[in-house]
Amino acid sequence: MDLITPDFGLFFWQTIVFLVLIFIMAKFAWKPILGAVNKREESINNALASAEEARKEMQNLKSDNEQLMKEARAERDAILKEARELKEKVMADATEEAQEKANKIVAQAKENIEQEKRAAMAEIKNQVANLSIEIAEKVVRKELSNKEKHHQMIDERLGEVTLN
């Protein structure tokens, strides 16, 4: 039970030892400990400030990145629009050129058909003329060969006419 109820002498010496310990600590250890604590507090504050700066810089970079992305999208859209317009123009030009070529081909084909038609008509006319000449020749020959028969018929008719 001596430990539970301390004596006045034990209490006195413990107090003196405690005060000496506090004096020694204040004289030799308190300043380095406070310096280390202050240094640690300062490094923590610097780290917090650096983190805040890094966060702000990241925010700025993020906004710059978003701005660059917007510009890139706008530029991409402009390029795509220009490409579409160019494609449509090229297709329209190609269609127009193809239409012109088709029209030229059709016109040339019509002209060729007309020339062939004229040539065929001329050929038909020549053949008709040749056939007509041949038929006329045959008729004339027949008529000339039948001349004697015609003379006899004419004489007979004349004889009948005078008799009547």
From TrEMBL:
Spans through the membrane: 12-30
Segments forming a coiled coil: 37-134
Main location: membrane
Coiled coil keyword on record: yes
Pfam families: ATP-synt_B
Compartments reported by the entry: Cell membrane; Endomembrane system
Protein topology in the membrane: Single-pass membrane protein
Key words, A-Z: ATP synthesis, Cell membrane, CF(0), Coiled coil, Hydrogen ion transport, Ion transport, Membrane, Transmembrane, Transmembrane helix, Transport
Alphabetized InterPro entries for the sequence: ATP_synth_B-like_membr_sf, ATP_synth_b/b'su_bac/chlpt, ATP_synth_F0_bsu_bac, ATP_synthase_B_chain
Subunit structure: F-type ATPases have 2 components, F(1) - the catalytic core - and F(0) - the membrane proton channel. F(1) has five subunits: alpha(3), beta(3), gamma(1), delta(1), epsilon(1). F(0) has three main subunits: a(1), b(2) and c(10-14). The alpha and beta chains form an alternating ring which encloses part of the gamma chain. F(1) is attached to F(0) by a central stalk formed by the gamma and epsilon chains, while a peripheral stalk is formed by the delta and b chains.
Its job: Component of the F(0) channel, it forms part of the peripheral stalk, linking F(1) to F(0). The b'-subunit is a diverged and duplicated form of b found in plants and photosynthetic bacteria.
Family of this protein: Belongs to the ATPase B chain family.
Protein name, as recorded: ATP synthase subunit b
Species whose genome carries this gene: Salegentibacter chungangensis
Gene: atpF
